[in-house]
Design brief:
This protein has about 325 residues and is α/β, with parallel strands linked by helices. The chain folds into two domains: about 60 residues; about 240 residues, Aldolase class I (TIM Barrel, Alpha-Beta Barrel). The strands form two sheets. The chain has a nine-stranded mixed β-sheet, covered by helices on one side. Helix 9 links the parallel strand 8 and strand 9.
């Protein structure tokens, strides 16, 4: 351990009140590692590593990851954008998918390589999304690989199940696979307003097809300020479909992609759900084309990427807790 750096750490932290932070200059990874060992030994916390300094909190705070339910901790589930093109062009799509969007397909071979790293990295669930994943005729190959290793959910608008795609759907295993189908209202008006004329009827047909074929489904609604009483009406439809609570999802529009209004997202405000696309790794699937939300240009090693996301999440939460405790107004 560097004697000179250790002295500076002792001096800086000793002069800092408990629960507040100080900056200490460092020169490269060796200094950062020295500081990590020192804070571990002395009961302090590194909040942020900058290019030429580290921010240290005097004292320890509870691990923010431990405060989350296990299935909400970054790294529990892995999202994968199989593609970005879609048969619809929803006016609030968080990744601006459409029939003309660049496809950005993850091949079956690359998908298999991701799975090889997913389980050792601690992933417990897989979520496949797009675009419309079922536009890929060979999506079933990816789904077979996925359900063989982890419980898998695939998001879909349920409009592609005819002919060969229907045959391939029916041949898929039922165990370990959930079809999450988008449906924004209990009647056509609101759903079609955002997703296109006739899309409600086609989505309902797809829901019936999936249920008739014996698949486990989840129905997910995305609601904006014009939703009115739609959420209450959806509850009635969910009951009619005999859906359990964990088969019902209602979320709000995020101001991402094609949406010009909605909830504003940032890495500091959003619990991460690690997401892969053909272009790299993202903080959350709701922001998989937002440059500010890009974590890495490369997928591997996946375990280290997840560890980095967890570390950044800890830093954001601890920093917010410190700010709340050191900025009283009365």
């Amino acid at each position: 351990m560097s004697f000179e750096l250790t002295l500076r750490l002792i001096e800086a932290v000793s002069a800092t009140a408990a629960g507040t932070t100080t900056l200490v200059t460092v020169d490269g990874p060796d200094d950062v590692e020295t500081a990590r060992r020192w804070v571990e030994a002395t009961g302090n916390t590194i909040l942020t590593v900058h290019a030429d300094s580290i921010e240290i909190l005097r004292g320890r705070l509870a691990d923010p990851l431990e405060a989350l339910p296990p299935d909400r901790r970054p790294g529990y589930r892995l999202w994968i954008y199989t593609n970005f093109h879609c048969n619809l062009a929803c006016d609030y799509c968080c990744v601006a998918s459409s029939p003309t969007a660049e496809r950005r397909i993850i091949s079956v071979e690359d998908f298999a390589a991701i799975l090889d790293e997913a389980v050792p990295a601690g992933i417990r669930e897989l979520y496949l999304t797009g675009g419309e994943p079922f536009l890929l005729l060979d999506l079933d190959e990816r789904l077979r690989l996925a359900v063989a290793v982890l419980p898998t959910t695939v998001l879909t608008n349920a409009m592609q199940w005819q002919g060969e795609r229907l045959r391939r759907l029916d041949a898929l295993p039922r165990d370990g696979l959930t079809l999450q189908i988008s449906l924004d209202s209990a009647t056509a008006d609101l759903h079609d307003r955002h997703r296109g004329d006739g899309s409600f009827a086609r989505a309902m047909k797809g829901i019936r097809t999936a249920l008739d074929l014996g698949f486990r489904i989840r129905v997910a609604a995305t609601l904006g300020p014009d939703a009115g009483a739609s959420e209450n009406e959806l509850v009635g439809l969910f009951d009619e479909l005999s859906l359990d609570e964990d088969q019902r999802v209602v979320r709000r529009i995020a101001r991402q992609g094609a949406a010009n209004a909605g909830l504003t997202m940032s890495r500091a405000s959003l619990i991460p759900e690690v997401c892969l696309s053909a272009e790299g790794v993202w903080w959350h699937p709701v922001a998989a084309i937002d440059p500010a939300m890009k974590v890495s240009d490369t997928w591997f090693p996946l375990a280290k990427t997840i560890e980095a996301v967890q570390g950044e999440y800890r830093s954001h939460r601890i920093a917010n807790d410190v700010l709340a405790s050191t900025f009283p107004c009365a």
